[in-house]
């Protein structure tokens, strides 16, 4: 994505980075490890699809968290195609990709339902297992 | 076309693939985020093509394209002759992404994939225009500054602005990661590691 180039009064970059480059043996080991990993993934996906699917889900969740990158990029493109404000569209994309998951609010629910949901989540997160407290909490909801 | 392996990685023609890039590729393919990866890959290829075409138009030779964990990197055998030339070459990549995004959104093109491609192209262009090393925005800034002041000073100011922006990104990145979304932290760490890798 980015580029480098030499500039006046500077030694070529290859000379500046020479000491930092891996040795031939180290680079060969890295390359072999990458090829090995590729083969393991390829064989795993083709021969044991169900078993590898479990690990794939874990890995995908660890990499992307709760962010749906495809939906975020598509929404940005769609908003621009419909003539939306570019700054607002980019802002929405940033929120979708970078905002913490906990701040997300379900806009399909009315505001009162979101408040109730937050209260219930807060209660059960702090509930110490006391049955009487649970009854006292649930009784007003049933009423 | 000759294929060889040396301490830089696997080289075919003028393209070099490092081992860490292959690791990343395997990881992304394995996780199955294919459409996003494909669109970002095409957008990145067009971005680099923009740089290469601009270099050719300006008579700056391109020695090698290196694909590593920190992204794609053009190794220019020659030297840019001026700050304006430096800025032009750096701007060419994002400009191509903006043009392709606009083309993808043109009404006659069918399919939902165009929205994904347009979004990926646009964000790739905007992200690369940040004045943070090693992104194109820092090259544009460096080129503009080197036209106004001595080269060493332009280097220092560009590096200072870049590091300041990375420091600004880091705390919200940690905060968002603590709340369950590591994306911003990953970007901040990637930018910091990229500068160390390239040692600009």
Give an overview of the whole structure:
The complex is a heterodimer of chains A (143) and B (200). Chain A is mainly α and 143 residues long. Chain A folds into three domains: 24-65; 66-104, no CATH class; 108-143. Chain A is 69% helix and 2% strand. By secondary structure, chain B is an alpha+beta fold. In chain B, 45% of the residues are buried. Chain B is built from seven helices and five strands. Chain B has two domains: 1-129, no CATH class; 131-200, no CATH class. Classes of the chains: A mainly alpha (143), B alpha+beta (200). Chains A and B meet through β1, α1, α2, α3 and α4 of A and α1, α2, β5, α3 and α4 of B. β1 of chain A pairs parallel with β5 (71-79) of chain B.
Biggest sheet of chain A, open or closed, and with what strands and sense? Answer: none
Spans of chain A of 5+ residues with little confidence (pLDDT < 50)?
1-9, 11-19
Beta-strand share of residues of chain A: under 5%
**Kindly state the mean pLDDT of chain B as a whole number?**
81
- Which two chains share the most extensive interface? A-B, 58 and 75 residues
Number of domains of chain B: 2
Order of helices and strands of chain B: EEEHHEEHHHHH
Strand content of chain B: 5-15%
Radius of gyration computed on alpha carbons of chain A? 26 Å
> Can you give the helix content of chain B as a percent range?
55-70%
What topology does this entry show?
The complex is a heterodimer of chains A (143) and B (200).
Chain A: E1 4-6, H1 13-16, H2 24-47, H3 49-64, H4 69-81, H5 86-98, H6 111-126, H7 131-142
Chain B: E1 3-6, E2 9-12, E3 15-17, H1 19-31, H2 34-58, E4 62-68, E5 71-79, H3 83-104, H4 113-128, H5 136-148, H6 151-178, H7 183-198
Parallel strand pairs in B: 3-4
Antiparallel strand pairs in B: 1-2, 2-3, 4-5
Helix pairs in contact in B: 2-3, 2-4, 3-4, 3-5, 5-6, 6-7
